[in-house]
Amino acid sequence: MDNQQALPMAADNVSIDPTIDPTTQRKHAAMMERLSNLHQSRVSNKTNPKDPSFESTQSFLSAFTNSKQAIESSLAEIQQIPDSNPNQDLKPDLERISLSISDLEKLVAENSYFLPPYEVRSSLKTISDLKQTLDSVTSKVKPRKKFSFKNKPAKKPETATVLAAAATKNESEHQSSYKVTDAPGFRSKENEVLVKEFKGSEVGEYVLTDLTNCEVRLKGCLRTLFINRLQNCKIYVGPVLGSILIEEVEGCVFVMASHQIRIHHAKRSDFYLRCRSRPIIEQSDGVRFAPYRLSYDGIENDLKESNLFDDTGSWANVDDFQWLRAVQSPNWSILPENERIETVKF
After folding, report:
1. Taking a C-beta distance cutoff of 8 angstroms, is the pair 220, 197 a contact?
2. The C-CAP/cofactor C-like domain covers which part of the protein (predicted)?
């Protein structure tokens, strides 16, 4: 009796059309149970993301492979359902598979800080392939109305969503998808010292764009930062609670702390960073990295409130998304200690 009750519960109360033959019902229920268990395991892992038993490449790859195979199996099975019942509404099933792929994507993001760069790139490629397969399966089983893959996480800062989506795009495509038109910031300045102090979390996002030969000092915490088209500038930034996106910079020095840092089209620039996840570079060369070197009154409290007080060493583990080989990318390097700047104080 217990076994008979367990299956509908594992299927998350999904009703099955009684007109479907018993064999198809069993396959459908088994697929729903597998997807439900997969999702619940992801949720359970999130409640204890720092479990040391999972912080190894081998254990991650085992969990990732099991999830991948479950999703692939569900995609294969769902294609067989229209053969036995062409009128069945498959949208809920497709949405569950979409959710499972989203969980797998989150799994990679949450554990990327200890994974080798090659495994991160390989995992992201696998997720991209699963999304394409889902779209392909959807177009076959629902030809009249295509169900496109949509990742619908809970509320996130806009920049984090943009960066997560960009990670699974064609990395050779360069485009700025970040809308910054109305955001506050410094624009179109030359040969100036630009200073801004933030109090609390009053600023959601901030912009530095079209600056030449400028020194920028941003004191305090802000939520997100977008940097675009800078030449020969020095940028000193307090803790950023969310993400930093940098595009088209040359001959610059950046001193900044953030949870996520992504760099596009950078040339001959130095980055002094403190970050929770690996910095990502794309289509960049001659970029060098070193630990964060900034000091001002109250920075210790700002770093603690932003969960950036501890140096995790992620600044030295850079992912180059244009370099797919297992050997060191020639596009970035560690900045030699004798060439590093002194701690900047203001």
Report:
1. yes
2. 153-323
Closest to 287 measured CA to CA, from 305, 268, 274:
268
Rounded Cα gap, residues 78 and 190, in angstroms: 59
Can you name the residues that pair with 217 across neighbouring β-strands? Answer: 195, 236
pTM beyond cutoff 0.70 = no
Radius of gyration of the chain (CA): 23
**DSSP-derived secondary structure for 130-166:** HHHHHHHHHHHH-TTS-------PSP--HHHHHHHHH
Distance CA 263, CA 172 (A): 14
Residues in the chain: 346
What's the average pLDDT block by block, 10 residues per block, for the chain (346 residues)? 39 45 59 58 47 65 88 82 62 84 78 72 84 83 51 45 42 43 86 89 78 95 92 95 91 94 94 92 93 94 89 88 76 93 93
Query: In this structure, what token pair is assigned to residue 248?
Result: 């088209």
Query: Which residues are CB-contacts of 85 (< 8 A; sequence separation ≥ 6)?
Result: 17, 19, 20, 21, 24
Using CB atoms within 10 Å of the CB of residue 155, give its burial: 0 to 12 exposed, 13 to 18 middle, 19+ buried: exposed
**What is the token pair recorded at 108?**
């990679």
Which long-range contacts link 76-80 to residues 24+ away (Cβ below 8 Å)?
A: 77/27, 77/28, 77/31, 78/31, 78/137, 78/141, 79/137, 79/140, 79/141, 80/24, 80/27
Instruction: Of 12, 4, 16, give the one whose Cα is nearest residue 33.
Output: 12
User: CB–CB of 126/68 below 8 Å?
Assistant: yes
Host H or E run for residue 295: strand 294-295
C-alpha–C-alpha distance, residues 255 and 310, integer Å: 16
CA distance linking residue 188 with residue 147, whole number of Å: 43
Residue 297 DSSP label? T
Contact 227, 266 (CB under 8 A): no
Spatial separation of the C-alpha atoms in residues 232 and 235, rounded to whole Å: 10
Structural contact between residues 236 and 259, judged by C-beta atoms closer than 8 angstroms: no
Distance CA 223, CA 298 (A): 17
